[in-house]
Amino acid sequence: MSVTRMPATLPASEATRKLAPDTLFPLRPACPAREARIRMKIFIAGHQGMVGAALVRRLGREPGVTLLLRDRAALDLASQTAVEKFYATEKPDTAIIAAARVGGIHANSAYPAEFIYSNLIIATNTIHGAWQAGVKRLLFLGSSCIYPKHAPQPMPEDCLLTGPLEPTNEAYAVAKIAGLKLAQFYRQQYGVAFHSAMPTNLYGPGDNYHPQNSHVLPALIRRFHAAREAGLAEVVAWGSGTPRREFLHVDDLADACAFLLTLNNPPDLINLGTGTDVTIRELTETVADVTGFKGRVTWDTTKPDGTPRKLMDVSKLSALGWRAKTALRDGIEQTYASYLAEKAAGTLRE
Ligand SMILES: NC(=O)c1ccc[n+]([C@@H]2O[C@H](COP(=O)([O-])OP(=O)(O)OC[C@H]3O[C@@H](n4cnc5c(N)ncnc54)[C@H](OP(=O)(O)O)[C@@H]3O)[C@@H](O)[C@H]2O)c1
């Protein structure tokens, strides 16, 4: 299913995605033996982002579900009045907060005031507004940067607030921690099923390929694709290649979110990842191979390596019965195909 881009001028009713009404959205674990027929109106905040678009693809397959989608021009989540009016008019059953001001190290360190303000106000408006309007369920998405810089590896949920944050993204992390605490305290005080999930590094269709501002995997795809096109004999990669990182395909992330929404008593906070990591060297070699780059990769060890390891502890998620399906190599192949298609269509984010 393709993602619908909603122009600002559409009336609310037309900007509501209707899905076939009669299929099933199973409730687990309360009804393990039978599938319960339910109708749900789900608001996906940030549906045009990489995560939001994957949620649209995944939840769009759930018949009986109506997706409420608004782009920023139609609904600025920084406006409390607009958000309250939207919730009061549309009355979603469920909200998923996948909207955020997101950026790489450079943007996070250069604009910390904007990062903390935007992300705090999005969290406050979407969570408080949902409670006011009687939204029964809300899933708030954060990121692994909420955990302390020197968290144990793999990082369990209970290491939250046990040490200082990584200074380069502290503003973003503090806003995300505030968001998850809002959800937790509204649940505690008002009994609403508001809960949060913290995804690891994500990749997939709709990623950001900005030359300075992208994450490591899209940056590698861009770089090796360009090197292959230019017929370069060598690509110089930064650091030793030994740091280890975890990557989750965004479609698996969306499936994990759909799974969490079926739980009657979801954890307040849960990590979403694969539970496995690769070295940057392995990742680089895979991207080089997938993009068809035939030259040499050399490592400039005078450049910094960053944190040696960042891996989520996903034992809570595994115990609930969910695991990721996409092997990293397959996911990179699919992502490279999307990169080429988005480039050809002129829709690549860069
Ligand atoms: N990407 C990752 O690797 C990753 C990893 C872990 C967690 N996450 C989390 O997943 C969530 C989504 O990330 P993403 O990668 O999908 O980011 P993204 O691609 O940048 O999407 C963010 C979306 O939020 C929208 N948005 C921002 N401010 C808004 C506002 N004031 N009003 C309305 N819409 C607004 C953006 O709209 P515009 O297009 O108009 O700006 C965009 O559609 C974030 O909470 C992030 O922390 C992402």
Describe the SSE topology.
Layout: E1 16-17, E2 40-45, H1 50-59, E3 65-68, H2 80-90, E4 94-97, H3 105-110, H4 112-132, E5 137-141, H5 170-190, E6 193-199, E7 201-203, H6 216-230, E8 234-238, E9 244-245, E10 247-249, H7 250-261, E11 269-272, E12 278-279, H8 280-290, E13 296-300, E14 309-310, H9 315-320, H10 328-345
Parallel strand pairs: 2-3, 2-4, 4-5, 5-6, 6-11, 7-10, 8-13, 9-14
Antiparallel strand pairs: 1-3, 9-12
Helix pairs in contact: 1-7, 2-4, 4-5, 6-8
The structure holds NADP nicotinamide-adenine-dinucleotide phosphate.
NADP nicotinamide-adenine-dinucleotide phosphate is lined by residues 46, 48-52, 72, 76-78, 98-102, 122, 141-143, 199, 201-202, 215.
Using the coordinates shown, work out and report the CATH topology of the domain at 16-206 and 247-274 and 312-327. Rossmann fold
| Arithmetic mean pLDDT | 90
Q: Quick one: how many beta strands?
A: 14
Computed Rg: 20 Å
Global outline: globular
Strand order of the main beta sheet, please? 1-3-2-4-5-6-11
- Unreliable parts: 1-37
What is the C-level CATH assignment of the domain at 16-206 and 247-274 and 312-327? Alpha Beta
Give me the CATH superfamily of the domain at 16-206 and 247-274 and 312-327: NAD(P)-binding Rossmann-like Domain
Tags for this entry?
Rossmann fold, 350 residues, seven-stranded mixed sheet, 10 helices, disordered N terminus, alpha/beta, binds NADP nicotinamide-adenine-dinucleotide phosphate, 14 strands
Task: Please tell me about this protein's structure.
The chain has a seven-stranded mixed sheet with strand order 1-3-2-4-5-6-11, with helices on both faces. Strands 12-9-14 form a three-stranded mixed sheet. By secondary structure, the chain is an alpha/beta fold. The longest helix is centred in the middle third of the chain and has 21 residues, at 112-132. The chain has a domain at 16-206 and 247-274 and 312-327: Rossmann fold, CATH 3.40.50. 37% of the residues lie in helices and 15% in strands. Mean pLDDT is 90; it is low at 1-37. Bound molecules: NADP nicotinamide-adenine-dinucleotide phosphate (NAP). NADP nicotinamide-adenine-dinucleotide phosphate (NAP) is lined by residues 46, 48-52, 72, 76-78, 98-102, 122, 141-143, 199, 201-202, 215.
